[in-house]
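Protein in question quoted for reference:
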Amino acid sequence: MQVEALKNLSKILMKKETKEKLKKSKTKKNLIEVLNFRKEDKMKKRKKLVAITACPTGIAHTFLASGKIEEVAKKLGYDCKIETQGRTSENVLTKSEIENADIIIFAIDKGIEGLSRFNNKKVFKTSTKNVIKNAEKVISDAEQGKGEIIKAKSIDEEISSNDYSWKMFLNVYKNLMGGVSRMLPFVVAGGILVGLAFLFDSGITGGNLGVTRNFSGWFAGLGKVALGIFVPILGAYTAYSIVGPEGLLPGMVAGLIASGGGILYAGSIPEVNTWQNLWGRVTPGIDQGVLSAGSGFLGAMFGGYAGAFSVVILRKYIFKNVSRTFKGVVDIVAMPLLSVLVVGTIMFVFQIPLAYLAFGLKKGLEGMSSKGLLVLLTIFIGAMMAFDMGGPVNKVAYVFGTAGLGAGATETNYVVMGAVMLAGMTPPLGIAFSTIIFRKKAWENSEIESAKANWLLGSFFITEGAIPFAAKDPKRVIPSLIAGSMVVGLLVGIFKIGVSAPHGGLVVVSLFKSYLFSSNGAQIGMGIVLTIATLLAGALTTAFILGFWRMIDLRKNKLVLLK
């Protein structure tokens, strides 16, 4: 500290104006004013950067992008504050922080809340993925004044606005992930609760596993309730992501229709005058068992779009110019009623082919299992989970796995979910192992330090922990990750390792089973052993391929490490 003070003092004394002021100083106060070398002036000159990061699922990409902006901004000498709009909004930007910002960046893959705060401000918009890969270039572009002026409406205006565009339907990934991200908590909570019910019923024979003990049945019932509404939630929030709050009602109704069963389609229920099979009576030539099973997540995704379509049609063409006198009637009565009628008509027509498509997928899975082709499917799923580590391909595989965990799930469905979860855990763990095994032979000190977080991320099934490494070295990292996850898929298929929970990683390791064995005890015991062995095999495959590849390229001067 003394050295720093002397350094600053010497800089001040070398200035000509300082010497002149010292000569004129008559009092102690004058002297202190001249020699005041606090860094206030320097701090005032530091530029300020504010940003918002948000991804459809609101988890990894949101915070990875935030961390990358913060890291690069500080390196470039910026004071920065970053608002993350994940599951909830954190580190929310104030009005004064936005007003005083020199640079504003939106790293977003979805619509964000509070856009009206940025009215008339120039904002540089990009994706979270681009920030993770090219944060320095993003900040540089923002410095050069690239971006757009925000013209946002107030919250009330946004909700009541009838300014809808068909372009909103084109961002399919954003819209579907908007629904999937809201659906996930229901699937995760419900799936884990049902899995616990199975676990608590361990060792029981002669009854329905999961509901034989009253204690187990309590967990099973609660889990089934949560799982029972994930399809309607998917439909509702897919519509919401396209058209906002007015999409919730028709999207939810479409999702409930996609769920099948009960009032609309009741399978073997006779066609009598009851409040069951009401739509089934209108389609007597169609297999009611198929319609009763529903169209599931496929129908919900389609229904979300149908719900949004109904809102746009009504707002854009039917109620485009409504006077203030009738606005309340339209918003409270006409829009809800007519949007449900429109989406109901659409779903009545399309539920039949969608239900058959879902039925065909289920039968196809069962057929693959019976013909020994399940291994090929799990290998393919393994590759998909590692291909983009949380991107669209990864999410397709994940949704495919979770979709089979509802009512009527089979061993094959659980094995598919086992491949999804273990293959998704492999990339971050593989990188973590590689940085330990090869350390300074193939990795920079900063990379070794960054990889420590991957032990935790991989253990909790957060594949996105591998993204920063793949962004920095895609040529070597991505193929190595895919290889390790494909090994996991192969072993999952061979050992028939399944899990009834859709998330959790090692937290739910006791729920993994190996269906190679007949007794429930052996399934659980060997399931845990083979799960850990499979995960290690995949992670070490990635670790060694990546480590040796980097070492070889270092020797050939194709790769340079910064120490």
In short: The two ends are 28 Å apart (CA to CA). The beta strands are 48-54, 79-85, 89-90, 103-108, 122-126, 148-149, 497-499, 512-514.
